[in-house]
From TrEMBL:
Record NCBIfam families: PA_CoA_Oxy3
GO CC, one annotated term: cytosol
Name the UniProt record assigns to this protein: Phenylacetate-CoA oxygenase, PaaI subunit
Pfam families per record: PaaA_PaaC (PF05138)
Alphabetical list of PANTHER family matching this protein: 1,2-PHENYLACETYL-COA EPOXIDASE, SUBUNIT C, PHENYLACETIC ACID DEGRADATION PROTEIN PAA
Residue stretches of biased makeup (Basic and acidic residues): 232-244
Stretch list, region Disordered: 229-249
Species for this entry: Agrococcus casei LMG 22410
GO biological process, one term: phenylacetate catabolic process
Domain of life: Bacteria
SUPFAM superfamilies, per database record: Ferritin-like
Matches recorded under InterPro entries: Aromatic_CoA_ox/epox, Ferritin-like, Ferritin-like_SF, PaaA_PaaC, PaaC
Amino acid sequence: MSAETEPSVTVTDVELDAELTSTGLVASADEAEYALRIGDDSLILAQQLGWWISRAPELEEDLALGNIALDLLGHARNLLHFAGTALGKTEDELAYFRDEHEFRSAWLFEQPNGDFGHTIARGLLTSAFQFELYTQLAESSSPGLAGIAAKSVKEVAYHRDHAVQWTLRLAGGTDESRSRIERALINTWPYLDELFRDDELHERFDAAPRPSALREPVMNVLRQVLAEAELDEPKTSESSGDGRHGHHSTYLGPILAEMQVLARRHPDASW
């Protein structure tokens, strides 16, 4: 797979929010639940990636990881805004004033940054999943979800290429860099399976692709990258992650504490 090095062109969430408002789109209960799931994924990963600003191994990566974080934050804002039309809440209320058990992010997005290799491994898995998800969701019968997905997939294509480029670079670099990306893939691989599990929402909501239908195309991309990098597919047990139903890893609590502290301390503040 070729990897592009140009920065993504951000499509702002303001533009899409205006579209949602002007067309009077209001999410159904199922659309809202689904939007919360994938919106929380992006929100939590954006918060994680923000840590790398001023800490990345080189200036270009400071910019790249920061830009990816901003893209993901834009996706999250659009999805939470859409969910909020059904729930009677703003995107800020959904981001800052829900408790841990009310979030619906998958465990993979909650995993710690670790070293740079772990951040790249996590990014490879999450972007491969999100790219296929948004590609299929762009054809949804839900105008709100389809519009968000069509805009988001353009940016996720860059996120995936960035992760692929660094996976190949680390695997083909020194013995140390290769061992680190190998170890990172082994540590993150168990959390993939949760992304492909169907549940009761997908039994009744046919406007979004079933997670199980995403498994084959996502795994095909990942196996292609591993083959090019001459890395073995990790043989690990599946995690018991169930973030879609509010049962989270031990990592989410501290992430939310950091993300929400200012808004909760000054709930009436505006700027």
